[in-house]
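Re: the pair you flagged

First of the two:
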Amino acid sequence: MKFKTLVVTFSLALTAACGSKPTPENTAVIADNAKPNIIMIVIDDLGWSDVGYNQTTDYFETPNIDALAQQGLVFDQAYAGAANCAPSRAVLMSGQYGPRHGVYTVSPSDRGNPKTRKLIPIKNKSGISTDVITIAESLKTAGYTTGTFGKWHLGIDPDKQGFDVNVGGSHQGMTLHYFSPYNLPNMVDGPKGEYLTERLTNEVIDWVKTNKDQRFFAYVPYYTVHTPYQAVVDKVNKYHQKGIKSKQEATYAAMVEHMDENVGRILAMLASEGLADNTLVIFTSDNGGYRMSSFPTPLRGGKGSYYDGGLRVPLIVRWPEKIKPGLDHTPVINADFYPTLVNVTKSKQPNQVLDGVDLTAHLLGQQKIAERDLFWHFPIYLQAHHAQTDQGQDPLFRTRPGSSIRSGDWKLIQYFENNEFELYNLANDLAEQRNLASEKPSKVAELKAKLQAWQQQTGADIPTKLNPEYDEAINQKLIDKIFAKEQHH
């Protein structure tokens, strides 16, 4: 089953996006004896097109993920709650948009040349507060045992926020070593040369086998495919032989294959242990991936960008005999996992606003979710990763401070520095190349009003204080210099 580029409209209700609890018509009832085990696999920096079933080339080899896509419901309009690691994970774990928990980026929020930053950005929180009730804490109210295996990156260790077992999770946002010794907190190094993705999978498999007689929630946030790019030499050479000249890009493809093999190991274990039929498997990524020349994508931007290349992610949901396999164009966001899992597991509703919506009835084919708008808020600066390929608003930053809304076919981006707006019709312009803001002032006004209402309702902090170090002439000179270099090449 090959799923190539599909453009599908979506709209989302402001009330739901601002935290309404699941409405009765969208809430399916799950019997106690039908409550599933849950395995949530979150890959780090895996791009929307970087899986075999959805790739734009034939380089990536992900047969296990492709098989999962055949067996599950594939969402081609799935979005991360933010465009880089920590804020996206904060949205997922809390069920809340960024303004509620204050995690907007990987600290600090004032990245990039100070002379090119017009505003003083909002200060960033490095992790979610212990006052926030996580998915894991909610699931424990329904008797689930919980384990996390891999990257946490949300401040305090996860065993303080609802996880009974924590392997390798801490404040760290990456590993420096994919081959043991790893030197990671909360995990003993393995034999020299052991590969981290395989080790984490071993830990997941052992834990599930030990806990298979009770309901379990396994959160598997692999460190891969985040930098540094490190993989087994034979696999790297394989992708060189397939035609990838860049060592970095061949290694990335090899890491994707390593990851796929280990996802396959988890799925095979579920089958061999008789657990597959009553285990809900979620496979996704925390945000978009870095742009690489060997792997073209129809989306603009990549990790750190609030164009779709930074936000749209793979998503497969499998629950045999409960969720009908297929391709689903419904827009969803990772904030939706929380209310969905609360309902599926019959957990206690947390005493906090949940900005996502319960997808249970939709997943079970009983009721489509109500239309709604999606929102993102990024009152921070994130410097360019690679100016020539980032495809940012300008080449100095992947993100300048702003907010964004997607409503129906339309996506509006507001930049706070000069109160500028970009408007795109994604049905006709998936690559977000044609800014229609000047041609469609009434549509800009409509979406701007929705965005402002959401900012007010969520208490979104908006930077307004001017940066005394900012130098407009230097800012423009640096932009012009990069453009001139691009034209020369």
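Second of the two:
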Amino acid sequence: MRRALVSVSDKNDLVPFVKGLVENDFEIISTGGTKKVLDEAGIKTISVEDVTGFPEILDGRVKTLNPYIHGGLLGRRDVPEHVETMKKLRIHPIDLVCVNLYPFKQTIEKPDCTLADAIENIDIGGPSMVRSAAKNYHDVTIVVDKADYQTVLDEFNENGKTTLETRAKLAAKAFRHTAAYDALISQYLSEKVGVEAPEKLTLTYELEDTMRYGENSHQRAWFYQDALPKKYSVSSARQLHGKQLSYNNIKDADAAIRIAREFNEPTVVALKHMNPCGIGRADNIETAWDRAYAADPISIFGGIIVLNRKVDLKTAEKMHELFLEIIIAPGYDDDAFEVLAKKKNIRLLQLDFENKDEKTRFETVSIMGGLLMQEQDVIEENESEWKVVTKNKPTKEQLEALMFAWKAVKHTKSNAIVVADDKQTLGIGAGQPNRIDSTKIAIKHAGDKITDAAVMASDAFFPMDDCVQYAAEHGIKAIVHPGGSIRDQDSIDMADKYGITMVMTGIRHFRH
């Protein structure tokens, strides 16, 4: 009879699958908890100890690491010398392996998980069997995913065996399975011992969704989620209404929630094409919305909106008047949701803002032929460390406005200029190849909203004094930027000429 070795941590749907194998003339080898479940279901099983002639030892750490197991998996049926050796040593071929691994991921996701707990849930025998079976897929069927149970049974029922094509596909999945498992262990242990720049970077992600298309309609795309997703992330947001998120939606939503986590008071962020087009804050979310909308009532059309407070009816009614792609909030009042959901295509997402300070340490971006990795730009801003470099000192109100503008410019594509007061952005210039063009765009957008309360932020230093002069001539009273140019003094002198305040942070916030 053919033999199948079955040992799984996830026992869902297992019994019907194994019964199907028995009906196809398989003997079942099993061990531990899996054997107990099968025995209780009335399925006759052979213990691993009966196959190996050796007991489990070291609290079950060693049970399947044995030639009678791996010889049965790796022996090639088309090589006479292998067949002869197996007969001589009385090694029975194993034709199917159904294994999924110790729940390492589920273990380390527990808040109270200790290093010892994690170590004990590193599977050794399981991956070894999976790899042996997958390597010998020409003769052995390897099953690591319960989603494949029915496919395998259907082929046995129809043909008495699985096809070589199916076994090859299952083998490829098996190696993906063990690779992801090892990558997660590698990440966890590297983090525990403080490795920042490993000589080998092993990352693993899980397919979350297949996109309708990518950045453009002729590009295919897929959405992969971190194997250990953060609660404050687009991948963890719960979609309550609307059509499927697109590739661009996800990128924009990610950018928007990064901005929103900068603010604690009621704040609304409006974003378009990876750049903020309006940010408003207030004592209540409705007024914050009014200010975000007023910041740029044209660009907000078709935008992504993030509110860091529950959406009430009045705010919902105002948002309902516009075409918006996505609204993200920690929750929605029932009547507010009813109003917004009248538009069938708008995406309404609920996100856990309680975890907004849960920061991912590193971020990656793909390039042709490689990957760039860096720490996220999550430095804590401290205005007490800012340096006032002009004769005029900022007022308390100006400092509040400068900090607000500084947080906004941090998330705007470079070259970035933000004009704001302490309540809302007034004009944003983003992504221009030179800083003076960004300055002109921001000031043009701000227009007659520039008052004595208006300030300007630049994500990097001014290479010349032209931006300062232009800002001063159009009513800007205070400027914040990192400083660091060899011509900083020119900009300082220009600020003094017009009697405006200039503050240098010493921190640059390029965003490419």
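Residues 25 and 299 are 67 Å apart (CA to CA).

-B.
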